[in-house]
Structure formats: C-alpha cells, structure tokens
Amino acid sequence: MAVAKPARILALVSIILFITLLSQIFRAPPQIKGPGDLEQPMSDEPMNEEPLWRAAEYAADNPNAPRINATLLALVRNEEADDMVTSMKDLERTWNRKFNYPWTFFNDVPFTDEFKQAVRRETKAQVNFELIPKEHWAVPSWINSDLFDESARILDELAIQYGPMVSYHQMCRWNSGMFYKHPALQHVQYYWRVEPKVHFFCDVDYDVFRYMQDHNKTYGFTINLYDAPQSIPTLWPETKRFLAAHPEHLHPNNADDWVLDSKRRPEHNAKANGYSTCHFWSNFEIADMAFWRSKAYEDYFEHLDRAGGFFYERWGDAPVHSIALGLFEDKEKIHW
Q1: Alpha-carbon distance 84 to 79, whole Å?
Q2: Contact 233/313 with Cβ under 8 angstroms?
Q3: Where are the domains of the chain?
Q4: Which residues are catalytic?
Q5: Quick one: pLDDT band at residue 34, thresholds 50, 70, 90?
Q6: Which of 54, 97, 147, 252 is most exposed by smallest CB count within 10 Å?
C-alpha cells in the first residue's frame, strides 16, 4: 500500500530530527576560549596533580602535623552565632575535622561568651577571637557624610542591595584592604574565607592550603559572578587612572582579557565603563595574603580608598580583588 505524501514527509522530518539529536549528544566538547569556559569535567580533586597531602598526620594535638601557616577566617557578628555554627558544622564535617586548621573570627565589637562557647563546640582546632581596630573599621575622615547620604539615596533608588547601609560599605572596605593588616594575621600566609550560613556539600580529603603552596597558587575560588554595573560605574575608570600612574604594576602574563571581556555581557561592560563586572565570588575565596601585602595591591587599594568609591558607590571586595588579581598577578597563579 502506498504511503500518503504527508506521512512520508513526517517520517523524513522525524529521521532528520533524530540524527540531529544524536549528533548533539556525541559531538566533541566546545573549544576552550579562555578563563571562565568549561575546561574539563568537575572532579572532587585537582586532576592529575600530586602530591596531595592527606589527613593521616593532622590530629589537632599533633605538634608535628604538616599544617602550614594558614587559617579559616570569618567576619561575623555576635547575633550570627547560629548561622556561623551552621557553616562550621558543614566545613568541619567535610574537611577540617581531618586537618584541624585554626579558626580566626573577627568582629568590630567584642565577642560575647555565648558566641565563643557556641563556635568552640564545633571544632577541635584552635579558635581565635579578634577585635577589629577602630581605625580599620571607621569611615575614613576624607569621606563627605552629605555626599555619602546622597549617594546612598541614589543606590537605594537603583535597588542596589545594601547600598544605604553604612556598615556594609565598611565591611567591603575592610575585606578589600584592611583585614590582612590585623596584628593577628601578621604572620599568617594563607586563609580560607568562611561566611555565616553557607554550606559545604562535598568531602575534601586533601590539604587545600598545602595544594596552594605546592602548586604556587595565589588565589582559589568557587564561582564567577557578574556584579551590578550600577554599583561600580567609576571603579574601572579609577583603575585606568591608577594604571596610567603605575604601569609598572601590570603583570606581563595578566588576565586582562577576562577583566575587560565585552562579548558575554556587553551591556554590563558598557554600564561599568569598560569592566566586564565578572568577578570571583570572594565569600569562599582561598588566598595567599602575600599578594594583598604586595606593593602593587597596596598602591591600588590606597588609590581606590582615596577615591571614595567604597562609600560613594558600592565597590565590593569581590570586584576589587578580582580586578587586582586579573591585572597584577600572573594568571597561571590563579586556580581557574
């Protein structure tokens, strides 16, 4: 029996769609274009990189444990004790109960006994409680309060999260260029930043700080995000002014193609006046503080601090850290 013409056409279309589907499934992976693109399947561990330091010798009471000069670091308020405990439970379960790196907590007011007792119950490792010096937290003397109030109003109208909150601006400035100056961290090299009320789902069975040291890495992160360009309109113009005055700080093997990318989100680049707004989400960053203490970064932070954008706009530590790493560090030292 002859098949009707519409049926033959439908069958042919079905075959074509089936072949197209198979070609999509089995095609070669996309070519890597640069930082931010998927390079290889996700793994629980760095791929094909040894040695990885395991947990056998890391008991909290072992004075000869191979722990290096590093700490878990948290800026947290007394009223966030429960949220901090949530984060600690996860990170201790998945990683730190095996390696027992110290915890260092920072606050702009003294920690309460209740806070101290709550977090101490969650770890066998050393716990340190540090008060931020007033000169590290206070709004700088060169910030005009009337201009800040007007800027906060504009940020609020633009629906920029936390824009009107003075304490949020203080926190961003402290995380950008003040925390590593605290006397308690004077002789500490590496830190892993831990926020209240975050979660860690995967078991990690190697010493991540040792990994950073052994592989000469400056910075590790979990994810890249795009910032709200309305919160940082003059950050890149100020950065260009800094580079014009200090071209010596630009690293020859930098990641400026990532910093300046205008293809993925051209509207962000335009509104941020040349910066992609793509940044390392610093809430989970692991870093070598030698970079923040370098002349290049200290000069850069001083320039930005004097420009006032931490208060007149909402310059966060994430884009500030990211731009600095992308320009002043060898991109091979960032653990992409």
Answers
A1: 10
A2: yes
A3: 70-335
A4: 285
A5: very low
A6: 252
Amino acid present at 168: Y
Between CA 21 and CA 334 the distance in angstroms is: 37
| Domain 70-335, classified CATH 3.90.550.10, yes or no | yes
Asked if 254 contacts 331 with a C-beta cutoff of 8 angstroms, the reply is yes
| pLDDT score of 55 | 77
Reported as a single tens digit per residue, the pLDDT across 44-92 is 556 556 678 887 788 888 888 899 999 999 999 999 999 999 999 999 9
Identify which of 197, 278, 275 has the alpha carbon closest to the alpha carbon of residue 236: 275
Q: What per-residue confidence (pLDDT) applies to 8? A: 63
Phi, psi of 291, rounded to the nearest 5 degrees: -70, -45
If you search the block for the tokens 């002859």, which residue do you land on?
Answer: 2
Judge whether residue 104 has pLDDT over 70: yes
Buried residues in 210-240 as b, exposed as e (16+ CB within 10 A) = bbbbeeebbbbbeebeebbbbbbebbbebbe
Is residue 235 within 8 Å of residue 303, measured between CB atoms?
Answer: no
